[in-house]
Design brief:
The protein is an alpha/beta fold. The chain has 10 helices and 11 strands. Helix 1 packs across helix 10 and helix 2 runs parallel beside helix 3. The relative contact order is 0.18.
């Protein structure tokens, strides 16, 4: 009579074993990736590799549901500075795959690369756009694959306009400020023309700074930089207009590094100094994201942005 409950019990036990085995394997893989180059060490190396991947942000905007969103600028800077202080490191390889991101975090990474004491090579894998290109302009050389996407030298500023919705809902806006432009860009009312000009001036200022940074770092004429009009180029076209120095595979980049360090390049990946618990925590977030990103996207959002969001993208 109790055969059905026993069957269900066996099924539950098997499912639990499979789930435990899967989780154990996933954790092992995550810990292995997150501790690569940080635990053990011991091997000889003469080139430090630092990754810039995903949207560039100051801090990780994560939760157990949303997962990591991109490169944390402070951690990337920390890794570059650690490599610079390592007597064994003779050159820096900055591996870039990013659509861009926040302005000041991007510049912090660029400055760290520019201050590195030794040859610096940026390698664009899939995408080196906007903030990523801002960073690359701080390196001595920029390499890309012929199918990489490179460029997007431009700035985006955006603000939501909820004035129509607020009117339908009967919501009125009233705010007490000191200073004519203190509440410029507030989404609950229509923007005034002088406010639009003021905010556009900020975007134009960032753009001119971007052009100047690229022209100095890449030794390009500012007018040539402006003529790109924030286009994204395939690697081959980017080389034609001077946005990259050379095209090649990872092996070609390593051959170039061999000439820069006058030896066979032994590359070690530098990652931010985090405790094992922190790394496992990040890995758990990524597992949660992989398992439930559909749910996460429906229940989480980015609520820490100001009225006007300015990014290099």
């Amino acid at each position: 009579m109790d055969s059905e409950p026993r069957s269900k019990g066996r099924t539950a036990i098997v499912a639990a074993v499979v789930l435990t085995a899967t989780a154990t394997l996933a954790c092992r893989r995550i810990v292995g990736r997150l501790t690569r180059g940080r635990i053990g060490g011991g091997d000889e190396y003469n080139v430090a590799e630092v990754e810039v991947s995903g949207p560039i942000v100051r801090q990780r905007r994560t939760s157990p549901l949303s997962g990591a969103t991109g490169s944390t600028a402070d951690h990337v800077v920390e890794s570059i500075e650690e490599a610079d202080e390592d007597d064994a490191v003779e050159a820096l390889l900055l591996r870039i795959n990013t659509p861009g991101g926040e302005v000041l975090p991007s510049d912090d990474i660029r400055r760290a690369a520019a201050d590195f004491d030794g040859p610096t090579v940026a390698y664009a894998t899939d995408l080196c756009a906007s903030g990523g290109y801002w960073i690359a302009s701080g390196c001595d050389e920029l390499w890309a694959h012929d199918a990489s996407l490179v460029g997007s030298i431009g700035v985006v500023g955006s603000r939501p306009n909820a004035a129509g919705l607020a009117e339908k809902l009967g919501i009125s806006y009233e705010q007490f400020t000191a200073g004519e432009y203190k509440d410029a860009g507030v989404p609950l009312r229509e923007i005034e023309e002088d406010e639009r000009e003021y905010l556009q001036g900020i975007i134009d200022g960032y753009y001119e700074q971007f052009v100047e940074t690229v022209s100095e770092g890449r030794d390009m004429d500012p007018d040539d930089v402006r003529e790109t009009e924030a286009r994204v180029y395939l690697g081959t076209d980017a080389a034609d207009v001077g946005l990259v120095d050379d095209l090649g595979t990872r092996a070609d980049v390593e051959d170039r590094l061999a000439t820069l360090v006058d030896d066979e390049p032994e590359i070690r990946e530098f990652m931010p100094a985090q405790s094992l618990a922190e790394r496992i925590g990040i890995g758990a977030e990524r597992v949660a994201f992989a398992a439930g990103s559909g749910v996460a996207s429906a229940v989480t959002g980015d609520g820490d942005r100001g009225d006007v969001d300015v990014e290099l993208r």
